[in-house]
Amino acid sequence: MTGAATEAATDTGLRIIFEPAGVAAEARPGMSLLDIAIAAGVALDAPCGGQGRCGRCKVRFADPAAARSAPLRQRSNARLTPEEQAAGWLLACQTFVTDQATALAARDTAPETDQVATVLTLIVPERRAHIFPTGHAAAQPEVPSVTCNWRANPAVRTYIVEMEPPSLADQTTDLDRLRRALAQQHNISDVRAELGVLRRLAKTLREAQWRVAVTLEMRDWMHGAYLPPRLLAVRPAEAPRRDLGLAIDVGTTSVVVYLADFATGEIIDTASAYNAQIACGEDVISRIIYSQRGDGLNRLRELVVGTINELIAELVERNHVQSADIHEAAVAGNTTMTHLLLGLDPEYLREEPYVPTVSLPPRLEASELELRINPLARVHCLPSVGSYVGGDITAGVIASGMFATDKLTLFLDVGTNGEMVLGNQDWLIACACSAGPAFEGGGVGHGMRATIGAIEDVWINSETFEPTFNTIDNAPAQGICGSGLIDLLGELFVTGLVDKGGKINRHADTRRVRQGERGYEYVVAWARETGVGHDIVLTEGDISSLIRAKAAVYAGFSVLCRSVGVALSDVEQILIGGAFGQYIDVEKAIEIGLLPDQPVDRFRFLGNTSAMGAYTALLCVNMRHEVNEVASKMTYLELSADNSFMEEYTSALFLPHTDLNAFPTVKALLKENA
Q1: DSSP 488-525
Q2: How far apart are CA 489 and CA 547, in angstroms?
Q3: CB 27 within 8 A of CB 97
Q4: Residue 339 · residue 349 · CB < 8 Å
Q5: Is the pLDDT score of 108 beyond 70?
């Protein structure tokens, strides 16, 4: 237990121990058990961010008798069954430490000791009991083509400089001596230096015997003009060194970091991890709400910075490089994630008229964000377009190349939010819709993220209604991830097991259709086939969540097309970004009405375009300004203010759509299977 936790426990008279992790946590009056767990690094399953809506942050007393005298109060137990309440279960987000804890400390703690008055041990269900997940290597991306001459105009470059030592005849200051040598030997003038470098400069020059490696930020930009080069590091010429940078994708679900070499332009390595903010809510709205609770905003900032720093440490260790050699970073994230990273209040992003604090964040240094790289490293946050079209989408437009093509292009990034851009090199219009977490496994009873054991694709025999499925890494089935849910719903629909309204066929000749605890359901995997010890099913409620999610996405790009007077059939290419997008089966996505019924060769999957766009902006200084120009010319369509969105959404709340003529291939398939 940490010193801070011990001190707080002594003050309040209450210590919480979470088992089986064995983590002891501080408890102060007014904190919920969820807040206490998050502060201690214990990640409970709380997709709603502590609003009491999901009922999944359950914990129970190890000693039910202790519950009767515990200085805790329950705001609500509406999501718990009577049986769960009798067994001592609590909702962590709805259970708060009372002021009675302080009174207990005053009564039961002797002044001369640090003895804690009350210790409560809570059991976290095994499938949820874990410390925030650590990083892991991400798939090595295909290095995108960078259109500018980055070798001629590098963002960061190191030069070897030799100087004459000072003398009574030449008492030029150390900095001016360095500037003079750079101008004479490399034709670089007016170099700027900041206090962090100046504090070490005198000793470094003398220890290096006046032969040093000088690392410069070559093309710093401010107020529409390039500034002179900026001094980032001065080291002995013989010291090991590399000029490195980071491209960072701050996603709602995951954080991905690319480590790049400025000398070669190569992506040396990648790493990713779940965004630790997940403990405070699975979607941006839940996190915005969490940010308004006490120290919530600062806690969210600490969690995402901590995730990034853990990934940096992993990359540094794995590649035997120095964190001080990382001299620049480019960051792409949606508008909410960028606000939370910077510690900006996101409250007004969710309140009409949905205004961000800033679209193009100011010039930042790594030390300001507490990133563990060169403290003077410039951090470039890619600009957002609106409250729900952020720097990740601007990055995607750059990485996809749609900003430079004459083809009418639709760019999609489907996740918790469905963000999309329509246009070409002449014009761009963007919007976003709340798809919800269904396509990322949230809001679905046996849904899960795309990790080991997730069912990722499904086929159903149209005669026997028996399924065949594959899981990630061929592990025993644990649940169903987004791509598997799309496959499954498509198969259920075209085989007649589910009708266009999402109702399961009660009369289907298969034992896999049954009445379950939550209504009718289809059994995808029997308990004996799984690694979780129970049947994995899809219920009518789950189907309803998936239909609402796909309807929002389809309605979004339908409104975009209508707003500029083009038909979906006029779109010449459909580019799909995002980590989830690359696993979508186009035909199945068309069958359920998630994607428009277009020839398959018009679709192209691009992978993580947010990280790729950040990488492009990191390496190519000119592209950073291209990104800003693209963002500034992109028209943002606020769907909540567009009456036609609700019309399109309502029409899309069927499989695949109310207008079956808009899906001729699906219509033909249904006729064939009839």
Answers
A1: HHHHHHHTTSB-TTS-B-TT-SSTTEEEETTEEEEEEE
A2: 9
A3: yes
A4: yes
A5: no
d(CA 313, CA 139): 18
Dump pLDDT digits (tens) for 193-204.
999 999 999 999
- Long-range contacts of range 323-326, CB-CB < 8 Å, 24 or more positions apart? 323/372, 323/373, 323/374, 324/233, 324/373, 324/374, 325/241, 325/242, 325/243, 325/244, 325/374, 326/244, 326/245, 326/246, 326/259, 326/373, 326/374, 326/377
Assign domain 245-381 to a CATH class.
alpha beta
Query: Do 156-236 and 3-123 have the same topology in CATH?
Result: yes
d(CA 333, CA 339): 9
Architecture category of domain 3-123 in CATH: Roll (3.10)
Looking at the domain covering 156-236, what would its CATH class be?
alpha beta
- Non-local (6+) Cβ contacts of 273 within 8 A are 133, 134, 135, 136, 254, 255, 307, 310, 311
User: Residue 46: is it exposed, middle or buried by C-beta count within 10 angstroms (0-12/13-18/19+)?
Assistant: buried
- Would you state the structure tokens that stand for residue 300, as one six-digit string? 């969210």
Cβ neighbours around 519 below 10 Å, total: 12
Per-residue confidence band for 225, with pLDDT thresholds at 50, 70 and 90: low
First to last CA, the chain: 65
- Nearest 5°: phi and psi at 261? -105, 120
- Distance, in Å, from the CA atom of 296 to the CA atom of 614, rounded to the nearest integer, reads 28
Q: Give the span between the Cα atoms of 44 and 90, in whole angstroms.
A: 12
pLDDT of 186: 95
Q: Please state, in angstroms and rounded to a whole number, the distance separating the CA atoms of residues 330 and 378.
A: 8
Pairwise CA distance, residues 381 & 394, whole Å: 11
Count of CB atoms situated within 10 Å of the CB of 173? 11
State yes or no: cis peptide before 383, omega within 30 of 0.
Answer: no
SS3 sequence of 115-146: CCCEEEEEECCCCCCCECCCCECCCCCCCCCC
| Cα 537 to Cα 408: distance, rounded to the nearest angstrom | 41
Q: Where are the alpha helices (DSSP H) in 343-441?
A: 366-369, 391-400
Residue ranges of the domains in the chain? 3-123, 156-236, 245-381, 382-674
- C-alpha dihedral sign at 410, 411, 415, 416: negative
Higher-confidence residue: 570 or 96?
A: 570
Collapsed DSSP state (helix, strand, coil) of residue 416 = coil
d(CA 418, CA 68): 46
For helices 284-291 and 335-342, give the axis angle rounded to 10 degrees: 30
What is the chain's length? 674
Average pLDDT along the chain = 87
- Residue 200 CB coordination number (10 Å): 12
Say how far residue 490 (Cα) sits from the centre of its chain.
27
Q: Which of 245, 181, 172 is nearest to 210 (CA)?
A: 181
For residue 261, what are the β-bridge partners?
Answer: 244
d(CA 586, CA 664): 15
